[in-house]
Design a protein that fits this description.
The complex is a heterodimer.
Chain A (H helix, E strand, L loop, with lengths): L3 E4 L2 E4 L4 E8 L5 E7 L6 E7 L2 E5 L6 E7 L2 E7 L7 E8 L10 E2 L3 E5 L1
Parallel strand pairs in A: 2-11
Antiparallel strand pairs in A: 1-3, 3-8, 4-5, 4-9, 5-6, 7-8, 9-10, 9-11
Chain B lengths: L3 E3 L4 E4 L4 E7 L6 E7 L6 E7 L2 E5 L2 E6 L4 E6 L8 E8 L9 E2 L3 E6 L1
Parallel strand pairs in B: 2-11
Antiparallel strand pairs in B: 1-3, 3-8, 4-5, 4-9, 6-7, 7-8, 9-10, 9-11
The chains are: A mainly beta, B mainly beta.
Chain lengths: 115, 113
């Protein structure tokens, strides 16, 4: 079982709704990530947090708003999404030291459908 | 040209076959090489991790990295129906070099009983 836990597993939301995806890890990792994955495509990086600070934003639209309350938690706030935002949203974490490279561990994902 | 190229398949083999999955890449700064297995409607699961060139074996799985040819492989021996999944190669220059993980397109594997 993965040590990165995501909730909810499934979410259906309307285009005017506000919702949040949540992620938790207890591996002592100090880097956490949000990825988006469409069917039959590899994961696409959205955001990277390093030591609770946003270090990479891959030009993601502002309707996606990440938050890292502490070293174990990562949230993704969703507002005014479009149907094309429907996808599997993956949280991941990794060590930050050079010796461990960038081995990323993924959660099971949250399936988002925007109607 | 993509930084990482991976044949998307699909690849269908009989149970017990040896499976070879491959990726090529263009960025010589990549030092960390990973293979992920992703079952349908699940998150990617880290299968193998290799630093720099060489081989690594774990049970029925062997990962090979040839940095001189910019080519990595994953071999699955005695393949089982439970190995049916999408296999993603991924690589990076390491966290201290930006940390971004670059994925291949994924190869869909089906092992028939």
């Amino acid at each position: 079982d993965t040590e990165v836990t995501q909730t909810p597993k499934h979410l259906v939301m309307g285009m005017t709704n506000k919702k949040s995806l949540k992620c938790e890890q207890h591996m002592g990792h100090r880097a956490m990530y949000w990825y988006k994955q469409k069917a039959k495509k590899p994961p696409e990086l959205m955001f990277v947090y390093s030591y609770e600070k946003l270090s990479i934003n891959e030009s993601v639209p502002s309707r996606f708003s990440p938050e890292c309350p502490n070293s174990s938690l990562l949230n993704l706030h969703l507002h005014a999404l479009q149907p094309e935002d429907s996808a599997l949203y993956l949280c991941a974490s990794s060590h930050t030291g050079a010796i461990s490279g960038n081995t990323i561990y993924f959660g099971e994902g949250s399936w988002l459908t925007v109607v | 040209q993509k930084e990482v190229e991976q044949d998307p398949g699909p690849l269908s083999v009989p149970e017990g076959a040896i499976v070879s999955l491959n990726c090529t890449y263009s960025n010589s700064a990549f030092q960390y090489f990973m293979w992920y297995r992703q079952y349908s409607r699940k998150g990617p699961e880290l299968l193998m991790y290799t630093y720099s060139s060489g081989n690594k074996e774990d049970g029925r799985f062997t990962a090979q990295v040839d940095k001189s040819s910019k080519y990595i492989s994953l071999f699955i021996r005695d393949s089982q129906p439970s190995d049916s999944a999408t296999y993603l190669c991924a690589m990076s220059g390491g966290y201290n070099q930006g940390g971004k993980l670059i994925f291949g397109q994924g190869t869909e594997l089906s092992v028939k009983p």
